[in-house]
Design goal:
This protein is an alpha/beta fold. Helices cover 31% and strands 20% of the residues. The chain has a single domain, classed as TIM Barrel (Alpha-Beta Barrel), CATH 3.20.20. The strands form 2 sheets. It has an 8-stranded parallel beta barrel. Strands 9-10 form a two-stranded antiparallel ribbon.
Length: 217
Amino acid sequence: MTATRIKICGVTRAQDAQACAACGADAIGLVFYPRSSRAVTVGQAADIVAALPPFVTVVALFVDEPIASIERILTNLPIDVIQFHGEESPAFCQQFGRPWIKALRVKPDLDVGEQCQRFSKARAVLLDSWQAGVVGGTGRTFDWRLAQKPLPMSVVLAGGLNDNNVGDGMRALRPAAVDVSGGVESAPGLKDVDRIKQFIAAVRAADQQMEALPNDN
């Protein structure tokens, strides 16, 4: 069975990182965007990363962050992958010498295929929900039909996911990975172990169901 990768984003506490890993998450996301309710400092991030077992990927999320700030964080923390969630250009994303993911906020006038070509050097594109004035963490799903055509690179599905809808999203888009934040929280930035378990169980159940179905995307 092909296992869809699972990233839990917006981790703010070491105990939550440990819970994510213990429940079977493949990656955690650390938000370095001061306006986010899930933002962490370099010191907080260091404590979180130190609590992780081996082979859990650490993703740093930036939103139009200055180059010097990104380089400072990469120097002081063992970041595995960068996630760019703002208006960064391909050239900007490529300059840091790390694997990277580009977030796309999906709305009807966005040509997802064209954006995949534009960001072809990315490890994947992350498809998130568009909301005016909000760069992420909307708690809303987007119209998955807007991204159902074949795409030339791996997709990470995000945007309002929880244990009740993640299977539907996976069946619609067959993503390589899913990304959840608010859907496994008791409050912004505070992860809930039971919700993490339920979400991961829902992903694995969807994996099993899709294994028996033809891939008609």
